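Extended Data, panel c. Modelled sequence:
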Amino acid sequence: MKTLLLMSLVTIMSFCTNNNDYNMENKKLIEYVIKNNLTEVKRLIEKGENINTVNKEGKSILLLAVINNQTEMATFLTQQGADVNLQAKNSDTAFLFAGASGQTKMVKLFLEHGARFDIYNRYGGTALIPACERGHVETVKVLAQVKNFPINHVNNLGWTGLMEAVVLGDGSFKYQEIIKILLEHGADQNINDFDNISALQHAKNKGQTEIVTILSNHQKSTN
């Protein structure tokens, strides 16, 4: 009985030591990141705390900094070796979230620090697709120009970045610019959605006159 109790105690102590949620220093590190207290974060990192500490949702401290739009904090953590591809339970990574939220400076930084293109968000999409959806022109421009970026990747909804810009966009100037950027860098407008409807047809159905013109002219020029 005593042996069993001792083994149980050792197991619990080991779990508490290795699990971030039970490590008081890691809790402090997460708290300081959320509060944007860079001085204390630096102190704990220099003390040897894990640069890839995560919270109960699996969100790394780098991801938390990006979510809170803390550029200086995120830059420091990245330069100290934080993993820009570490996925939370909801599939977010610092890189994916930066793309989706239009944090172009962070996107550039993460590209310089090993951002991967084969890790996808909960919809099976890249950093580019939600950037297209939300009209983040500068972010789209940066990603579209990256060598070997999968510009024609299709997410779980059956949409490429170009398709998503049409289907979920409003046809305004920023979406027109995004369509032009994507086409210029090799986006294929002939990839239909899962209902076999083209981006051009969606644009026509939604009355996006300017985008219809852009897509039609590009189609003519490539035929």
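Residues 201 and 212 are 8 Å apart (CA to CA). This feature is highlighted in the accompanying rendering.
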